[in-house]
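Project standup — Tuesday

K.O.: blocked on the structure for the chain from last sprint. Re-posting the sequence here as requested.
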Amino acid sequence: MVKMDLFKDNHPFSSFAHIDLAKARVSRDSPTIFVCGGLVDVTSADIKSVRDLFFESMSKLGHDEFHHYCIRAETFKDYKDDGRYKDLSEFENDLAHFASLLIIFLESAGAIVELGLFCNGEGLREKLLVFVNEYHYEQDSFIRHGPLESLKQDNDSSVFVYPWDMHNPGSLGDEIMDIIFGDILETISRIPKSEKFLISNPGHQAFLIYECIRLYRALRIGEIQKLIAIHDINLSDRRIKNLIYLLRISDLVGIKTFGKDTFYYALRDEKKVSLTSKSKGQPFDYEGTRIAASVYYYENRSERLRQHAIDSVYPKGEEENVTD
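H.V.: unblocked you, prediction finished:
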């Protein structure tokens, strides 16, 4: 166990040692959904694919919540450079534990490749939801009798077949698109709303890092490393950057460089891990800790860079609106 004196007693970071991670739970109330498929061109008025139509139809059909849930697959094309991942398999493993759902609109060569990767990835296939064109599904093809049949055998509600014109995907129509939204919502309803926190689960580690950042407003990589090490989660700088990459593409964490230091800050005030105090099993005093941290930053000249970073990224007075 890492000693609790990594931080001085009067430093707000020391309060993180009082959390009982054995009783923590990861919230899945707001699902993280990665969406793969055909071309999406936000600069064009023309619908390029059913996936493009899916994103265009969210507000039109009254499903604005999906803007919050869904992330385009293009967002993580740079996993090796920006994410500092060594290889695809490492990224896939983290993604499997982090994401709530993986949706594939099977309408392009790239989507077929992604289907193969996700079907074979450990921990990924049970999170797959595939939408396939009726014509292609009815053909005597390797895709139907290979990965799709395998998925259906595991879960009959993992593959959905609908008719659409491959050359005019925008003609699919609102009625069928609304049914597709219903299929996804039904799948989401079956996802457990919370799960026990496991220190070895990389998705849970990522959400704990997010909670550290959300609690303390702006953190350096080394500070994140020390905070989670208090609870025997010992990760290298590279692994922390891997997990922060997942948080960044999910619009949970942003980056702010001030002076010579790089800080990570929360883009949302949304609880991802329910934290419990070691003291009599009471909920962790999130609001009190955040306020104490804000006072400490303001009163100590050594925290000037952090305070400037916080002032530049958070609306004034946001500390008063805390989600504990």
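K.O.: great, moving the ticket to review. Confidence is low (pLDDT under 50) at residues 1-5. Residues 300 and 307 are 10 Å apart (CA to CA).
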